[in-house]
UniProtKB/TrEMBL annotation, chain A:
Biological source species: Meristemomyces frigidus
Known function: Component of the EKC/KEOPS complex that is required for the formation of a threonylcarbamoyl group on adenosine at position 37 (t(6)A37) in tRNAs that read codons beginning with adenine. The complex is probably involved in the transfer of the threonylcarbamoyl moiety of threonylcarbamoyl-AMP (TC-AMP) to the N6 group of A37. BUD32 has ATPase activity in the context of the EKC/KEOPS complex and likely plays a supporting role to the catalytic subunit KAE1. The EKC/KEOPS complex also promotes both telomere uncapping and telomere elongation.
Name of the protein in question: EKC/KEOPS complex subunit BUD32
Superkingdom per UniProt: Eukaryota
Assembly behavior: Component of the EKC/KEOPS complex composed of at least BUD32, CGI121, GON7, KAE1 and PCC1; the whole complex dimerizes.
Keyword tRNA processing in annotation: yes
TrEMBL record, chain B:
Record text on cofactor binding: Binds 1 divalent metal cation per subunit.
Alphabetical GO biological process terms: tRNA threonylcarbamoyladenosine modification
Binding site for a divalent metal cation: 143, 147, 164, 341
Region: Disordered, residue numbers: 21-55
HAMAP family in the record: Kae1
Cleavable signal peptide: none
Locations listed in the record: Cytoplasm; Nucleus
Catalyzed chemical reaction(s): L-threonylcarbamoyladenylate + adenosine(37) in tRNA = N(6)-L-threonylcarbamoyladenosine(37) in tRNA + AMP + H(+)
Coiled-coil ranges from the UniProt annotation: none
Protein name: N(6)-L-threonylcarbamoyladenine synthase
InterPro entries recorded: ATPase_NBD (IPR043129), Gcp-like_dom (IPR000905), KAE1/TsaD (IPR017861), Kae1_archaea_euk (IPR034680), Peptidase_M22_CS (IPR017860)
Superkingdom of the organism of origin: Eukaryota
């Protein structure tokens, strides 16, 4: 195994063998996160030398091999399709030649307004190989929104200052806009949390954040589309928002009162793809979803 | 010493159990020099569970199952009649077996729900009658909580993620802040119901249990056919899978009558009921293990406890074991005495609540077909 210095947040120290072609690669692989489904490494894309995120879906030994292959393939492709559709980028290269499985993902149509709006808001797909079970995407430099919100809290003593509150508000407004564009593109994220949003370190579009002096400046990048699906139904969109609302409340109880900012911009900002009637219908649906007396409490 | 009798009849099993909770000792271990601490106080059974709570004693655990002929399911009316016919005999037998007197019993526990209305109410009537006759308090118990608590008591698993799989329920449960919270569940039919109904299609006997007979058939199979796979986050759905595998069974039976067996494309082997059972089991169990793994990753647990009738399945236990060991954890399961619906689990969960001061007034002792696991305040856990 070529990987050296596996530093990770892994709870269980199980040795993971990297899939082909990385098992003999000279690049370094740093284990960033381990979920139920996949392992995330930070590495370098050998074709261009740029930093990259490698998401590996290891074989599940408890599952029948035929079923396991089928699911891994379907999930890697589904995730890549959504990312490619959203980022408006083609695949730069497919996985190592040994399997010869070229990823066939259609380029989005020119002039597709909604899709173009999300360029840079999701990581670009660099390469994938469903046979070996991995996908490589652009590495997003920066920190998670979760960390950014936590950091504002520790910056000040006790309550957030007016300045910090304003910065948080514009951050939340940004999140509302990005989700609006995402939904308008016909994609449901499926697992919106502040850990699945990054703040890109260098702002590439200056107008994206209201206050560039704030520590919360930067572009919002949505990551981890492992549970995403394609849908335009109000119900699915409302549930997507509801998942975020719940996750935000439990992760950031102090800032919870600011969350309506997300919903406000989602439905009202002209930069959000959902402004106007559709957005209002989704918010009305969200009230139903809340009122449904949520049969489950997903509290960790 | 607290003793409870439990009556269960939410589905086609009538169960009567009598349990004894040895008195809880002080949390501080007694000094060996303390003369007040006598060996006689220890329970006769060797301590297997957590050192702090002495193991429960099962004084009686009887069950009588209503089985309908192959190709049919159990109907609420017939099942309720079965329970009415057997409940007095079972209670008498349990009391005799347990060697307890009426005055030893602290409370009468019964299943309030969830389950089938008819069978539930016939057993509830028996419980109310006993409560009036013997002048003992009633304790209404949530069936799912009964399964979870009995599984914990038997296996000694302290804080596991629980997969509760039976003919009526499919839930992934974890404990948090005095509730058993449902992290994932079946959105339509329960996994056991899916298996039972498929057994009917193939005319597999319901005795001892349809799922058991499917498991035995599946051991002879080995061809993995393609079925839908429906995991949505931490939820699962089985109705589409059932519809598809029923279509396959129809295709197989049709091919049989024409004497042109349906051959598997890859292996050129004929598709038999064993292959269909194998495919169905592998698919639905993979879904169950997957959502359990997600819940474990979510709450950061590495213990799994499987309860409910489908939990007896050795293939499910095996798959869960591999998953748990990959995560550096372990799997806990019980045998058919405690996995399949039984009275002792109702007695156990009821007694836990009773010791916290809970009881059900006669006027509130109605049964309910819908009773969520997370509605119950689990005030006996920290």
């Amino acid at each position: 195994m070529a990987a050296t210095n596996l530093i990770g947040t892994a709870v269980v120290e199980v040795e993971h063998k990297l899939p082909l072609p990385f098992d003999e690669s000279q690049e370094s692989f740093e284990l960033i996160a381990q979920g139920a489904e996949s392992l995330l490494y930070r590495t370098t894309f050998s074709a261009t030398g740029q930093p990259a995120a490698l998401k590996v879906r290891p074989e599940k030994k408890w599952r029948h091999p035929t079923l396991d292959k089928r699911l891994t393939r379907a999930r890697i492709l589904a995730e890549a399709r959504v990312l490619v559709k959203l980022s408006g980028e083609g695949i730069v290269a497919s996985g190592s030649g040994n399997s010869g499985k070229r990823a066939k993902v259609k380029q989005p149509r020119e002039g597709d307004h909604d899709v173009a709006g999300l360029k840079g808001f999701v990581p670009a797909v660099l390469a994938l190989d469903w046979e070996s079970g991995w996908m490589m995407t652009e590495w997003i430099e920066g920190r998670t929104v979760k960390k950014a919100v936590y950091d504002t809290k520790t910056d000040r003593n006790g309550d957030n200052t007016t300045e910090a509150t304003e910065a948080l508000k514009s951050l939340l407004a940004c999140i509302g806009e990005v989700i609006g564009i995402l939904h308008a593109s016909g994609v449901i994220h499926g697992d919106l949390t502040t850990s699945n949003m990054m703040l890109r370190a260098q702002p590439s579009t200056p107008e994206s954040i209201a206050s560039p002096t704030s520590s919360l400046a930067g572009d919002i990048v949505l990551i981890d589309f492992g549970l995403s699906s394609q849908s335009v139904s109000e119900e699915d969109r409302a549930v997507d928002l509801y998942v975020l609302e719940r996750a935000f409340g439990s992760t950031h109880p102090r800032e919870e009162y600011l969350f309506p900012e997300v919903l406000k911009t989602y439905a009202e900002s002209t930069r959000s793809g959902m402004h106007g009637k559709t957005g209002k219908l989704v918010l009305r649906k969200l009230e139903d979803v809340r009122m449904r007396g949520r049969k489950k409490s997903m509290l960790g | 010493m607290p003793i409870a009798i439990g009556l269960e009849g939410s589905a086609n099993k009538l169960g009567v159990g009598i349990i004894l909770h040895p008195p809880t000792r002080d949390l501080t271990p007694p000094s060996p020099h303390d003369s007040a601490y006598s060996d006689d106080e220890r329970s006769s059974q060797p301590s297997k569970g957590t050192p702090r709570s002495p193991p429960v004693q099962i004084l009686a655990n009887l069950r009588h199952t209503f089985n309908s002929p192959p190709g049919t399911g159990f109907l609420p009316k017939d099942t309720a009649a079965h329970h009415r016919r057997w409940v007095v005999r079972l209670v008498k037998q349990a009391m005799a077996q347990a060697h307890v007197q009426l005055e030893d019993i602290d409370c009468i526990c019964f299943t309030r729900g969830p389950g089938m209305g008819g069978p539930l109410s016939s057993v509830a009537i028996a419980a109310r009658t006993l409560s009036q006759l013997w002048d003992k308090p009633l304790v209404g118990v949530n069936h799912c909580v009964g399964h979870v608590e009995m599984g914990r008591a038997i296996t000694g698993a302290e804080n596991p993620v629980v997969l509760y799989v039976s003919g009526g329920n499919t839930q992934v449960i974890a404990y948090s802040a005095q509730r058993y919270r449902i992290f994932g569940e079946a959105l339509d039919v329960a996994v056991g119901n899916c298996l039972d109904r498929f057994a009917r299609v193939l005319n597999i006997p319901n005795d001892p249990a349809p799922g058991y007979n499917i498991e035995q058939l599946a051991k002879k199979g080995g061809i993995m056919l393609e079925l839908p796979y429906a995991v949505k986050g931490m939820d699962v759905s089985f109705s589409g899978i059932l519809a598809r595998v029923e279509e396959m069974a129809a295709k197989m039976q049709q091919a049989e009558t024409k004497n042109e067996p349906w051959l598997d494309v890859a292996t050129q082997q004929p598709i038999t009921p064993a292959e269909l059972c194998f495919t169905l089991q592998e698919t639905v169990f993979a879904m169950l293990v997957e959502i359990t793994e997600r819940a474990m990753a979510h709450v950061g647990a590495n213990q799994v406890l499987i309860v409910g009738g489908v939990g007896c399945n050795e293939r499910l236990q095996e798959m869960m074991g591999i998953m748990a060991s990959e995560r550096g954890g372990s799997v806990f399961a019980t045998d058919e005495r405690f996995c399949i619906d039984n009275g002792i689990m109702i007695a156990h969960a009821g007694l836990l609540a009773y010791k916290q001061g809970f009881s059900t007034a006669l006027s509130d002792s109605g049964v309910t077909q819908r009773f969520r696991t997370d509605e119950v305040l689990i005030n006996w856990r920290d």
